[in-house]
Amino acid sequence: MNLHDVLEQCLERLAGVLEDARYEQRDGYTFLAFPTFPVRDLNGMWVDSDAAVAHIEDARAEAQELGTPFSIMVREGRSRDVERAAVELGFEPTMRIPGMAVTPGELREPETSDCEVIRVETADGLAEAMAVGAAGFGISAELVASIYSLEVAELDGLEYYLARADGKDVATAAGFTIGEGVGIFSVATPTEHRGRGYGTAVTAQAVRDGFAAGATLAALQSSSLGEPVYRRLGFRELERYLLYTTSPKS
């Protein structure tokens, strides 16, 4: 079990319940289309090898027909032909994303925080987690609403969490345990609640629960804002993802 496999397993399970979603492993890449969850880094191609270079234009046309965003996610330095072809086709490297992981023996306990971390188990709780997540990422709740549905929340191994302090929801995260891996997703803290250890606490709980359920590796893709949080918990960078995108007019 490696970091990339953990993340892809989670996306495959998610595609199994979201309306009209596609997760298809093809020659050198995985094709991802989530019409009800149109975030750019989870729609398009996740590249495995340079064999994908011959399929970029067809995959982009397919995404356009489906009405989903299209990006190219590579693991930096592993698929240089794809990276060159992407630039020639008008794509630009817009994000470098650390792929980070931690094992049970490496996990560090966070400093004490004044928040309580709870598992979300009701529709109201999911709505609260969605609101916190949208605020933390600075996006509309509608963009992420589909992944906070009861149907998705009922997936085996998927848990949502809320951190609460002084009666307020202050951070959220999700952990998706499948076999020996737990993927950590949707870690978010609204701006006004940052710097108090809430994101660290909610992430640590998701990781601990995944390990208690049998996982031996916790994996995630980190934002630049979240990277120091994860390093404090013992996560280390194992991959560097590079996201190629085009402007809306391309």
Tally of DSSP helical segments: 8
Please tell me what the overall shape is. Answer: globular
Structural class: alpha+beta
The SSE order reads HEEEHEHEEHHHEEEHEHE
Query: Which ranges are low-confidence, i.e. pLDDT below 50, for 5 or more consecutive residues?
Result: none
How is the main sheet built? 11 strands, mixed
Question: How many extended strands?
Answer: 11
Distance between the termini: 37 Å
Mean pLDDT across all amino acids: 96
User: What order do the strands of the largest sheet run in, or round the barrel if closed?
Assistant: 1-2-3-4-11-5-10-9-8-7-6
Radius of gyration based on Cα positions: 18 Å
| Oligomeric status | single chain
Write structural notes for this entry.
- The structure is a single chain.
- With 250 residues, this protein is α+β, with helices and mostly antiparallel strands.
- It has helices at residues 3-15, 56-66, 80-88, 123-137, 141-144, 150-153, 198-212, 227-232; strands at residues 22-26, 29-33, 44-47, 71-75, 92-102, 116-119, 158-165, 168-178, 181-188, 217-221, 236-245.
- An eleven-stranded mixed sheet has the order 1-2-3-4-11-5-10-9-8-7-6, with helices on both faces.
- A hairpin with a 2-residue loop joins strand 8 and strand 9.
